[in-house]
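Honest question from a wet-lab person: if I give you the sequences of every part of a complex, can you actually get the arrangement of the whole thing, not just the pieces? Trying it with mine:
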Amino acid sequence: MSTRIPVLKTYKLYIGGQFPRTESGRAIALEGRGGRHVANYCRASRKDLRNAVVAARKAQSGWAGKTAYLRGQILYRTAEMLEGRAAQFAEELRLQGDSASGARKEVDAAIELLIHYAGWTDKYTQVFGTVNPVASPHFNFSVPEPTGVIGVVAPESPGLLGLVAGVAPLLAGGNACVVLASATHPLSAVTFAEVLNDSDLPGGVVNILTGLRQEILPTMATHKDIDGIAAYGTNAAEQTLIAENAALNVKRVALHPADALDGDPFRIMEFQEIKTTWHPVAIR
Amino acid sequence: MAAKKKTRPPEKTVPAAPPGNDFRLGEPYAPAPEATDHARIAPAYGLFINGAFVSAASGKRFPTVNPATEATLSEVSEAGPGDVDKAIAAARKAFGPWNRLKASERGKYLFRIARLLQERAREFAVIESMDGGKPIRESRDFDVPQAAAHFFYHGGWADKLAYAFPGRKIAPVGVAGQIIPWNFPLLMAAWKIAPALACGNTVVLKPAESTPLTALKLAELLADAGLPPGVVNIITGAGDTGAALVNHPGIDKIAFTGSTEVGKQIQRAVAATGKRHTLELGGKAAHIIFDDAPVDQAVEGIINGIFFNQGHVCCAGSRLLVQEGVAETIVAKLRRRMENLVLGDPLDKNTDIGAIHSRAQLERIEALVRAGVEEGACIHQSGQTLPAKGYWFRPTIFTETAQSHRINREEIFGPVLSVMTFRTPDEAIEKANNTPYGLSGGVWTDKGAKIFGVTGALRAGVLWANTFNKFDPASPFGGYKESGLGREGGLHGLAAYVNLSR
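Yes, you can. This is the full assembly:
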């Protein structure tokens, strides 16, 4: 009697709703406990990043144009998909070096966070929008609108929850994003892309790259079609790189510690622009 | 009374007829100049630091000139690094007591400032028009009343901040460095100072080197209001003074209004320093006219959109997009209307177009207009006679322009409109958004659904539908994309001056 040989997954990038290999053809071997080979993952190139930005730009206005209710439904579905695959995610985190009990807790927290933001999609504009009593016969109101395409630097750890905490508020607010995943937990990011892809999220709204921060971050920081950067758990040199180059096209920048993982509507507002509209009021 | 004396430099009254120009140029109106005898301008001003006017350490001074006559109005001091240091130290020292003051008491100072400004409104309007060249009708009816309203509005916020940021603890940012432009000198000072003080911050403000007078008059007024010394410090100087302020480790925040180029330098300078920043930068607003628009009202809106304050307006409607069916009619009406604008003495109550703010700005406008002609656009200029002295530019419209022309890509900041046409709403939106700027925009149509469809699709922070260039302290102002970061005015503007925590 022979034992069954398991079919192993090829971990690829997630760009424009598809799972391509890196155009560079490079891979990095992920080692688990004791130096055991766990899997290869893609070492994304600067070209992959630029492709991802093109995909994100193309998808962004369509995503922002969906009703807030539908964005909430889709985010809720990501939570459902994650719930259904919780054991797989926990096991994958464990393979990448996390403890079994910590891994399961992390998956649960990621699910809660997705539901939290799913509920915000059709409320934050009510909380943060205003009707302004101007001293002239005009109707005047201000509403938040998504900034556009946001680069996300996910924290090295927690691998899944950190990614979700970075991406979920952007999705709730109608932004598209290009994510550089954790280099210590790249597998969780790629598997989470499958969750997104199963949740009716339009292709290109979230794009996920795995690879080396020192290779990808300079291009992300200087890319002029990225409107903002949300970075979690970056060091001082990386923060300087991001903040200085933000001046190239007046990027919005939010720098957070790796453990800034709570649900928070102000996190949505970091990448919102306030649009104020005036119209005369009269009866003619 | 000794303290009082220090806060008010020796003054002279301004001669009723400023020397240098004969403004009677055959306009169809009798001259109606605003009296200037009540406007007091000192021959020289120091820096307003810690509640008193002091000389710059270097003793250096530079003139501020009336752009309508080229006459020197006064001399102001050039703040060097040591003076900047002193101003920031004064603001830092004042911060603790100011922040500990009961919020409602802080608010009362702001109400008081608003009232004093209302009382002296005409004097401020006259000086604003003399220093900057804008028509008295605008300084009197817009700049000064709006500045007073801004203080009044924010006075009311001081003790109500908890309602603006649900679920958050609120703290002031600290010492705010503020740098403002020359196009609305007093109003920009109000936009910067009022929210900063309401939220418990202290301020070092640098007005533009070419329009310092109303900010210095405001300093006198702040002292009259009894504002504690050091809460607001006003230092004059050019780019070097501004850079010293931006780069000083003693500020917690920089607020800047000006060009996108300088804004980017500031964003880079404060990168990774922990200093907060808000930027109100340039614009190249699209003003879209659909063929179902009320044509005559739209024409007035377009004229106001581009010629208000000689076009020295970051949110000016400088790219006109007209639907093909009405393009010919609109352009013909615009050209006729343009001829009727009264150009001349800024202090005359009939004047529509005042002086261009400075020789440098005039040269920049002239260079871009030359580029428009050289790139093949068709130029139409009105026929007003220009005064012999001072800096002037005729209202100008370009037709037959392309999106690639410099006049459609670069901010001219002058009375120059470029016209493009479009067929479908989608084409209008695409052209409107085809710019790195995103400050403002305008839409004219009689169809409500189209208004919301188009304003929703435009990537800009302030949108005027069937109106243009309207402002209010309660209405947030600020840009998308390279037009800036953050908002000024309204509830949203408060966020620029508070630190929030859980």
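Two things worth pointing out. Chain B touches chain A at residues 149, 166, 168, 260, 263-265, 267-268, 271-272, 279, 281, 436, 451, 455, 460-467, 470, 472, 474-478, 480-485, 487, 490-492, 500 (CB under 8 Å). Chain B has two domains: 75-281+482-501, 286-473.
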